[in-house]
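Bug: token stream looks shifted between consecutive jobs. Job 1:
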Amino acid sequence: MAYNFFVKSDIVFGCGSASALPEVLTQYQAKNVMVVYDAGVKAAGISEKVLGFIEKAGVNTVIFDKVMPNPTNELVEEAAVIAKDAGIDVFVAVGGGSSIDLAKAINILMTNPGPIGNYGGIGMVKNNVLPLIAIPTTAGTSSEITNVSALIDTEKVCKYVVIDDKIVPSKVIIDPEFTRTMPVSVTAATGMDAITHAVESYISNMATPLTQYNSVKGLQILHENLPKVVANGDDMDAREQMMLGCIITGFGFSNANLGLVHGIAHTLSAHFHLPHGMANACVLPYVMEFNAESCPDQMVELAKAIGLETSGNVDADKYLLAGELKKLIGLLGIKTLSQQGIEKKDFEMLAEDVLKEPVLNFNPRQGITKEQILDILEKAY
């Protein structure tokens, strides 16, 4: 059987690697650069450092710092007008998945007609885009190396994805020092986002030996190091490992796709603006319990990969991973749905919208019903 495995990333990795930015901009012959980031990146002093490096390249700089969690179509359109008026020829995205996803979407509209909503789905972007340099400040989304931009359609009240190989960032600068200032809650939530990517892509019905190799290796690294960085944010060895695990996992899930966890998380974010990592984390163990019926062997393989003791009884061992994930979200202080302000009266609406999520096509257990989703939401409540 033949497998497709797409990797396009050009990565500079390691502490201090951000200093390579001026040289990269020179290589792209940049003249007008848009820097995309959010208030948290600014407050942490990271944007100041990045802008200092950009200044050394002697280019004109336009700042777009209105990034919000779960960026909307309207925000993309607003930023694209500014970028076009300024004659932007290179983008620099600094931050987590929201900043990088937003920059990818703005970039699409620089060389393709709007509105951005026209590009939801797979392979809808017609024309090549401009250079985009991604500088992640979290270890979670892997947006810096994927072909995905996740956006909110406020009119349809849904989260959707643009998936196209053309939008993968041209250059990735991964400096673990930029993750040092992440709040503990963000470190935990983004780390669980990465773990969700690893687990869901490993059991995806689109998984191949090539994707599973990356998914399981990423899970091993993330599982070992996430508790360390939550306990001690200054543990730079663990922070570097988290960034490494995130990249490796990204190579897996960007080829294998994800499943029901993300279907639920997308819906929670669209309706209630829950941060993506937190939305994934609070339902992850219960979706894994649900999926275990359809992929018991893979569940046992993942349990063994992270050092869980198995009994040899697959019917029992297939639930070990879900149990470990429950312990992990408890250790990390991941909030339940009720603690995040979700009310049971909203479950019916949420479950109906989850069933519309295209990502469910890649879930190992098919034929998902509204009642089954309601049961998962109850457990995560």
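Job 2, same session, no restart:
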Amino acid sequence: MVAFKALKALASTEMTIFAQDRDLRYLWVFNPGDSWLTEQAHGRTDEEVLTGPVSERAIAVKREVLASQRPARFELTMTSGSATRWFDVRVDVDRDEANGVVGIIGSSFEITEQKRREETLKTLLRELSHRSKNLLAIIQSLASQTARHSVTVPEFLVRFRGRIQSLSSSQDIVTDADWRGADLGSLIVMQVERYAPDGMGQVRFEGPDVYLSPTASLHVGLALHELAVNAASYGSLSVPGGHVSIDSRFVTKEDERFLQLTWQERDGPRVRVDNDARFGTSTLERIVPNSVGGEAALEYRPEGISYSLLIPDSQFETAPATG
């Protein structure tokens, strides 16, 4: 009665159990379902049930179990078209009442979903490793550029911490979007609002709110940070009534489409045309455009700092990505 109930319970699972004789011919199969084993396996061998390397692997493991009389476990894969299924197979020797070895007894349990989750996790970990290395490279570059243009250690620490905070803020948006990137509008609010005394009331953004790639998100965020810090220290965000206009538009250059992002300050302190850069010109003119594969131009206009960045269409989507 107990054995009957156990078999009845087993029938509601995805586990198949089987027995083979010493010649590895199937004696019986219970609960085959749609697994690699079928009711027709009775009297057949693995060479007849399976194919190619899969059959060779199964036979080799089972013969080793018979020889060593020790249990074994292996994974069996079946491919049909583009679909692959995985099974966890466990085998041990089958003994008679006199404790003699009469064959093999085993079980098979489908683990396809588990394997797919494992593959997904491995892909995510590889992507995380790749992005982490990119982020470390950005930090190393920023540290070098910041040190090169800092006179004292305290000055270096203030600038470097600000840039790291900028990276962190942009990365938060990218992570919240499942690593797909960030929308331009959110980056502008995140990177600029904190430096404007009157918040976004001093900042106007017009144009398409594109969805930037993860790489572009980090570097455009850095550019916005450098511009905002300078504007809050010396430019239009340092005085009451000062404003910043941020515009985006699509342009075509040599048959390639770009997003042109423009920063223009107004109603701030008058800027001398021959004024030396007092902020991250290396980040704005070299690091950011080189990282996104675009171009940049920084101008010291009398009415305020002007910055233009061309971002190739490979680095953005015209609408937010959906899951």
